[in-house]
């Protein structure tokens, strides 16, 4: 969900599957209108509907120093001018891993030993259904 001020997600928000490795789905922007359900392997059904205009969403994926974070883009359909940006954060420095909008992502998974920041900006026209990210915490 898109919440003003952003959301911080860590391994306490996810379920353990299998033990010691934590995994969970991070839905994209808040949906609007009629839902179209997508099945997920081993997960409950997730709604995928058109999102609201003028969104500015941020998700901070916190990370325990003893873990690796694996982020996979499961589904992705945004308006051509709406953008998702993924940053790797290291203290006060950050490195952009991806910035993209549209319906196909050039790179669908990332693994990091540093926290990640995911941001999404939408305009007012040509909105898509959004995106669904799978976040896995892997204990080292």
Mean pLDDT: 73
What is the domain total for the residues?
1
Radius of gyration: 15 Å
List how many beta strands DSSP finds: 12
What order do the helices and strands follow?
EEEEEEEEEEEE
Low-confidence stretches: 15-23, 30-48
CATH architecture: Sandwich
Q: What is the level 1 CATH name?
A: Mainly Beta
Roughly how much helix do the residues carry, as a percent range? under 10%
Number of helices: 0
Distance between the termini: 29 Å
Report the CATH superfamily. Answer: Spermadhesin, CUB domain
Cα shape: globular
Structural class, judged by helices and strands?
mainly beta
Strand order of the largest sheet: 1-6-11-8-9
Largest sheet: 5 strands, mixed
- Quote the CATH topology: Jelly Rolls
Quote the beta fraction: over 45%
Description:
With 140 residues, the protein is an all-beta fold. It has a single domain (7-139), classed as Jelly Rolls (Sandwich). It contains no helices and twelve strands. The protein has strands spanning 7-9, 15-16, 21-27, 36-38, 46-48, 56-61, 67-77, 83-90, 93-100, 109-112, 116-121, 130-139. Strands 1-6-11-8-9 form a five-stranded mixed sheet, with no helix packed on it. A five-stranded antiparallel sheet has the order 2-3-12-7-10, with no helix packed on it. A two-stranded antiparallel ribbon has the order 4-5. A hairpin with a 2-residue loop joins strand 8 and strand 9 (93-100). The radius of gyration is 15 Å and the shape is globular. The chain starts with 6 loop residues before the first strand and ends with a strand.
